[in-house]
Amino acid sequence: MTVMQATARGQVDREQAHDLYWQGHADHGAEAVALLAEDGRVLRATAAFDALRTGGGWTTLPGERTRIAAAIARATARVAPQAAAVRFCRGGSGATLILIARPIPWQTRLLHAPAGVAIATLVDPTHRPAPATPLWREAFDLTPAEAELAALLMGGHSLESAAAARDCRPATLRVHLRHVFAKTGVSRQSDLVALLARMGRG
Predict the structure, then answer these.
(1) Can you tell me the distance from the alpha carbon of 160 to that of 74, in angstroms, rounded to the nearest whole number?
(2) How far apart are the C-alpha atoms of 33 and 99, rounded to whole Å?
């Protein structure tokens, strides 16, 4: 192999590593994530990220732009980068978004050679993705009624409000909840919600 072939091969391998690293993030298409360069530019972004970011920018308010720039600078710093988060209003809509910027660890950058230095995630606090009830049912052998109760609890319902939503008595749901606890191995609603959240959403 000539020097030029080896150089070309190294470039191809590096580009493939870039693509594989980004693909690992972009595969979660519902997530609003972007790869950031050292200067804070967005190198790649999912469609969900682009949809939340109004007109290619972050916000129309100068003070918030400064705070966003500071958060991104913290995550993309060459020396001792740190994760940062900032809440801001999207464009002129007044809707609130949260930007979380996390530096890509050095060992990951050495191993996968991503083109960027940080990952940015946009979170819409009002957005509630559909619960992954088929996965829950498969993993824990939940009945349809038990999975529906779990989805209501994940959506922020109490047992009483879930009973009102399903037009049944809270005592009925308490029986379902006991079965869900037994099948999932937890004993509190907060632990159940945390467990199901770790399994992701549909």
Answers:
(1) 44
(2) 10
